[in-house]
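Moderator note: this is an archived Q&A kept for reference. The question asked for a predicted structure of one protein chain; the sequence and the answer are reproduced below.
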Amino acid sequence: MKTFLIRFLFLDLPVLTWMGLIVHLASRPTSPPTTDLPLDKVMHFGAYALLALGIARACHGRLGPSGTTFAAFTSLTVASLHGLFIEIHQMSLPHRSAEWADLLADILGAGCCALAWWIFFRKPNRSEIETG
């Protein structure tokens, strides 16, 4: 029971908190942009890269090095679905709108993080060890 609680507090709770913060921020009214820079897309990219990082960390913390591919795939899938559900949720809000570009930025952020996680933590196969 103690191990479950520790894993929940240090692996799962940060992910759930970050997801909740994204939902909260996505539900608030926004002011019109004051610049032509795509800061909104950069924030979407960064927020979902961090979400994917947390999810991959939680999976890796439970499965260890043998779960690297699963952690990368799960982080990409869960973060992308979260982004999709946020955009669907924003369709129902009078002061917000859903944008395909936001969803694309979410998926790209999660995908870049998942790919980096997989590259960094994967075990090299035998042919890479022999030639490297």
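Archived answer notes: The mean pLDDT is 89.
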